[in-house]
Please model this.
Amino acid sequence: ETARVANAGGCLKCESHGPAEVYRWTYHGPEWFTETAYAAEACPELWPGQTVKAKLRGAGVRARLFVWDRISGKRYEGEEVLVDGEAEVAFRLPALDSACIAKAGVAWDGGELILDEMRLIGDPDYTVEFAKLPIEKFTHLDRCINQFARFKGICDREDGRLFLSCADEGMVNTGDLFWGDLRFTTDMTPTAEGVCKALVRLQGVRRLAAVELSREGLAIVREEFGKKVLARCEHSFELGQKYEFTVECRGEQVTVFENGRELLTAQVGLNRGAVGYGVEQGARMLIEKFSVQPL
Model:
């Protein structure tokens, strides 16, 4: 059913004679972009595990929140509520594997529904296997992994794994500037000499914390227009060897685990941020999968 939607003094007034929905896009893929002068890449605004909250008004209207996964085509819905007057509703998305949430909105059975506010909040809970993510082509020359943005370097998929390389410094990132306490679990397989990095508390390409693996061992570093090593320990670095790390971020403290054993911890001076991967000094690495969970 097509609904009539109007801005009514700072809220959305939605009317329909039958079942209808109103939503916002939370991910913009290549089909949204026609300008090719600059290569566009996009991350979602909403992630599995987070919560959609809305303030609604109506007179005996049955409504429910919903989201839509671009990759699987599946729709996930919250509990149906009877809106009779004012109502605040919330839907916490389930933890999902390799999803890209592209829509979030409200569906109702007909009548008049007023949407005063919709917010996307909370910390994520999801897993990504790179073999399951599509390659997005924003231009005929620009390819990127779905829901990742790239800063320099070559990023593509090789044998179902993300591969990243650069002659000097390359980076890909995903997530949100405002992610709080989280657990980032990932594998890294170096295939060329250099520095391989798992990025956390990322607030920009020049403001972040990182777990670095190289011939010098394993380190936690803070980067902000320069690099400061905060903690370091000995660690093997073998080309073709897959390493698996868990990085816990609590407030400004970052702690690195391997096989359940704590290896390093440091205060990084950053308490929020996205995640990603980086390479330096000609490094090349492969990543099969990762997960992000709230703490």
Summary: Residues 4 and 175 are 34 Å apart (CA to CA). The chain has a mean pLDDT of 93.
